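Practice problem: DNA topoisomerase (ATP-hydrolyzing)
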Amino acid sequence: NALSTHMKSQVFRDGKIYQQEYEKGKPLYPVKVVGTTDKRGTRQQFWPDGTIFTTTTYKWDIVASRMRELAYLNAGIRITLTDMRPDPETGKTRQEVFHAKDGLKEFVRYVDRHRTHLFDDVIYLKTEKQGVPIEVAVMYNTDYSENIHSYVNNINTIEGGTHLTGFRAALTRVLKNYADNDAAISKQIEKAKIEVAGEDFREGLTAVISIKVAEPQFEGQTKTKLGNSEVAGAVQQAVGEALSDYLEEHPSEAKKICEKVILAATARIAARKARESVQRKSVMSGGGLPGKLADCSNKDPKDCEIFLVEGDSAGGSAKQGRDRYTQAILPLRGKILNVEKVQWHRVFEAESVMNIIQSIGVRFG
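Answer key — structure tokens:
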């Protein structure tokens, strides 16, 4: 309202249509009855203030993404999004309906739709602890990163907060206890001579966490981090109980998760050793640059650029046509490793990748 040049609010209730209009946040007249109806609900029309917003033209994809998100977070609700602006190509208006019968279960599958799953089950809970309604959906995939979406009162807390802290604590504790108490799994860990860390339990994890809090306290510059201390314990208890029950009732899936954790820990340790080895070599060699790098003479990074070319022949041509003062050339041999899809120790073993890292002066840490 305060961010609009004009706003019209209509409420359909008890067979009547109630209306009030505003300009710059100020009401133009008291609430009045403007008609009769058999509908129930609210209609809001607003014209965003161009002196406040840099743009007042809304993009379909952004609005549709938010409507889809709300449909997933509120199972069973039906949201219809209509764009009355004619499509430039077809000349027609656009409409899409968002509806998710299974709510968060469908949400986590949607987020994870392009990945290969360890198993098809969604680990799901919906409960209330210490007066906090909690809903969580979890899946595991074969990737190497975690992907967690957390919400408070349907607001995306992109910086996390106490609900995310409670979730991670419960996940680590329950999975560690399960691995310690399972003879076969604990034997595998002992044989591999590894120490499992919290991050290993979250590798390949995709989760959606949604809670409701009566008086949320948001922190951070953008107010997207939950600060309510009591929430951490409630979420930790709820997730701990539900996950423990799931692992006991689904031993096959539990085994797959634990085997994934062991692989993650093994790869993490191997990557650390490879990184330390590279750093030692760099120190021993005086931090030298790759032999095939044709460096530039300017030392100001803001003015310099590096060209990565395929093979020595391309490198030779590029070296002849470059500006030696600001342009560096690095020939690469063969197909470069796709670092997004491999474990970290493979990255440090790839010569082409290490040459790039040394050339641009990246530090590990």
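Discussion: The radius of gyration is 28 Å. Students who identified this feature from the tokens alone can consider the problem solved.
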